[in-house]
Amino acid sequence: IHDLGADEKQCKCGHPLHKIGEEVSEQLEIIPAQAKVLRHVRHKYGCKGCEDTVLLAPLPPQPIPKSMAGHGLLAHTTISKYADHLPLYRQEQMWERAGIDLDRVTLGRWMMTCGKLLLPLVQLMKKDLLSEKYLQADETKLQVLSEKGRLSTSKSYMWLYKTVGTENLKIVYDYSPSRSASTATDFL
Question: How distant, in Å, are the alpha carbons of 46, 66, 127 from that of 156?
């Protein structure tokens, strides 16, 4: 809120000025993401009588046990990588500028674990997608640098299956080391 100073609220004719309205303008601003350390303090109890019993309050459920990654950080990293196409090495650089040491190996391990955690959701999405009468499919070449039993120069494929003409667009991606028709047949 911007207002005139008290000495400016006086007319040249000598009368005080009265507020007769306001003019509002909007400006878009950004507040950078905040990284917070959440400390989980768990109280530990022991028996002085027998000195055998020690009980510790449990941690709340964690997506990756014994990891420093919180739910929000995992979601942010996943969305940045897959929705915004921001490679992990660039995310590593961004965190470094913010003074946070998160290397791409750790970020990659988190993404692999998140993939496993999200597999039941993907299976439900696939089941929902396959309930449609008509689907479109397409494959895109990609190179996987480190895949067991394959050269780093081998081509792999990301298959996309999607609905057409429905109000709620449904899309499921399916990785395959092959472009074979059996890949689509197996999925469908």
Answer: 56, 33, 24
DSSP state of 35: -
Tokens of 33: 């993401």
Distance CA 65, CA 57 (A): 15
Tokens of 123: 């299976």
Instruction: Please state, in angstroms and as integers, the Cα–Cα distance from residue 109 to each residue in 66, 138, 166, following that order.
Output: 13, 28, 36
Beta strands in the chain (DSSP E): 44-46, 54-56, 135-143, 155-163, 171-176
Digit-by-digit pLDDT tens for the chain (188 residues) are 999 999 999 999 999 999 999 999 999 998 888 889 999 999 999 999 999 999 999 999 999 999 999 999 999 999 999 999 999 999 999 999 999 999 999 999 999 999 999 999 999 999 999 999 899 999 999 888 778 888 888 889 999 999 987 788 899 999 998 888 899 999 99
